[in-house]
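agent> fetching stored inputs for the zinc ion docking request
agent> found them:
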Amino acid sequence: MLQLRPSCECCDKDLPPAAPDAMICTFECTFCRDCVERRLHGVCPNCGGNFAARPIRPLAALAKNPPSTQRVFNPQGCGAA
Ligand SMILES: [Zn+2]
Ligand SMILES: [Zn+2]
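agent> prediction call returned; pasting tokens
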């Protein structure tokens, strides 16, 4: 099951479960679309893999399977100054 991490690893932007711009790699490293396109150029800085849009979990399923609340913030990995 997807963890549905709550934020972008690069810019710490909130990415709630319904965010249409959340992107994940195969290990579920999670980023916003802006960072994927402008800073990462489609390559995950942690594993070197590519990204796909994160599927949106329906509300009914969220109640049973709540999203992760643990924020991952690792701007060094994103080429940030
Ligand atoms: Zn971001
Ligand atoms: Zn990754």
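agent> quick read of the result: The longest strand covers residues 22-24.
agent> awaiting further instructions
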